[in-house]
Each structure stands twice: as structure tokens, then as C-alpha cells.
Amino acid sequence: MSAVPVPDDQLSKVFSALADPTRRDIVARLTVADATVGELGAPYDVSLQAVSKHIKVLEDAGLVSRSKDAQRRPVHLEAEVFDLMTKWIERYRRQAEERYRRLDAVLAQMDDESAAKQRGSASDRP
Amino acid sequence: MSAVPVPDDQLSKVFSALADPTRRDIVARLTVADATVGELGAPYDVSLQAVSKHIKVLEDAGLVSRSKDAQRRPVHLEAEVFDLMTKWIERYRRQAEERYRRLDAVLAQMDDESAAKQRGSASDRP
DNA sequence: CGTCTTCTCAACCAAGTGGTTGACAACCGA
DNA sequence: TCGGTTGTCAACCACTTGGTTGAGAAGACG
């Protein structure tokens, strides 16, 4: 019942996927080279199944893809999805910075005016 | 190579906070202007308490801060935290792109060699 | 063929998340 | 001081999440 029906979009999945340190680490290592599930899981001291699940989350978010090589499933980083996040972040950061600039301008103007007029009207005593 | 336990750092909290569309929307609107809890919650058709919780999550992640104005608690965006994400993303994206460049080089070289030598060694027949 | 390797699927569990309602603190305004 | 506004805290609930174990599919290989 949300008035604004925002569906669970890819952006949510991407952020959610990267909210886990283990998955971030996996992504980091995939920037160096593709790797199998076993290789990726080796450092973490969790079951292979758990690693497989992590990779599935990354895959659902579009951050990685899996191919086939005999029994092996090499995992490959899909770096383009990073752009999705970058765009979102940059958009609102720019907007925020713009706002701060405006705020600074307003504050500067208020300062000017208070220096010029020096007088408030009625009740503004603490 | 981190065989060791990665603690739940701020980066995780930031990604996690932004994994929710409602919270992303709140952040987006805070780039326009500070707002009270009631104002922020108005569009969403959820209880005020739920909105308060969302804001707490954003606050724990360092994305917003709350001040006091009588009963009101104006929420303010702390845009610097965006840099944390941007840095992480850019770092690994750059690394990934670098890797793809190297991969291209390797593939080009393999292509050269196969054109020159034209021969694999033993068993590579399907 | 049988066996080992690599990985996924299914069922289960504890902890976390997002929502609810109810109580109430803090403050303004009459 | 009393009532209305604004927001938080606490308890509760359904659902998700990250982990587990067990079973087994799919290949390589002797």
C-alpha cells in the first residue's frame, strides 16, 4: 500500500548486494580475475553453499554472471552495473551541492540584510 | 585476501541504508531541502513511526543528521558520506576496466599467436 | 564402469528488517 | 494549566537473510 509504488528495482538489488562485506570482497577480487565458486569462497571459512548463495545474490543484481567450464562455474564481473549506482549517487550529490551553494547565498544575503536593517519586527525574543 | 572477519563497517551501513527505495527517495528529497519527519513521511502512507525508523537507519549510516526545533526534528542530509561509496565504486571500477584492457591485450596476442603457430598441443577435440 | 570434484538445490534455523499499535515525552499556544 | 502537535520508544508480528547440513546433478578421469 505505498502511495508511490516503487517496485524492488535493480538499483535496490545492487545496493543490497554490496551491503555485505563478503560480497563486496568477492566483487573486489573479481576485478582482478574471473574465479570459480571454490576459489572465491576459499578465504572465508564458510560452506561452499553459502558462497554459492552470495554469488547468486550478486548475479540477481546483475553484478556478475556465471558461465560453464566442465563442473566449474567461473564467475565474471559485469562492471557496467556500477554505472547505475554512480549515476544515482552523482545525481543527488550534485543536487545536494547545488543546494548548499544556494543556502550559502541565502545565508550571505540574510547577513547583508541584518547588517543593513538591524531590526526584527515583533516577537523574536528567546 | 582477507581471510579475516570484516566487521560491519560504515560502508555496509551506507549501502544497506540505500538499498531501500523509500530511504533513497527520502535522501533524494533531502537534497532539495531539510525536512521534518512528518513532511518526509507524508507521501508514503506508512505510520510516522516507520518513517522515524527509516530516518534512524539513515542516521546510523551517517547519511543524515537530526537537529531540534521545538517538537520538530528537522532532518539534514550529510552528503559527504556519498564520497565513501563513490570511492569504493570508482576504485574497483577502475581496477575492472584496467583488467579488461589487459584482457583485450592478451586476447589480441593470443590471436596473433594462433595465426602464427596455428597449433594446439594434445586433447582439444570435442 | 566407478569415483572424485565442483557446484546447486532443498529444508531448516537464528537473527535481522520493516511494518504495526499503544504509550508517552516534549513543546507550543490559548 | 490544558489540549493539540510532533516525534520517539517498546512490544509485537510476518517476512527476509545468511548461515547450516544433506542429497544429488554434472563432468573429468583412471
How does this model look, in words?
The structure is a homodimer of 126-residue chains. By secondary structure, chain A is mainly alpha-helical. Chain A folds into two domains: 10-77, Arc Repressor Mutant, subunit A (Orthogonal Bundle), CATH 1.10.10.10; 80-115. Chain A contains five helices and two strands. Chain A has helices at residues 10-18, 21-30, 37-41, 48-60, 81-117; strands spanning 64-66, 75-77. In chain A, β1 (64-66) and β2 (75-77) form a beta hairpin. In chain A, α1 packs antiparallel against α4. Chains A and B meet through α1, α2 and α5 of A and α1, α2 and α5 of B. Chain A binds a DNA duplex (30 and 30 nucleotides) through residues 20, 22, 36-38, 46-54, 56-57, 70-73.
Summarize the structure.
2 copies of one chain form a homodimer. Chain A has helices at residues 10-18, 21-30, 37-41, 48-60, 81-117, and strands at 64-66, 75-77.
Spell out the key features of this protein.
2 domains, mainly alpha, two-stranded antiparallel sheet, disordered N terminus, Arc Repressor Mutant, subunit A, homodimer, elongated, 126 residues, DNA-binding
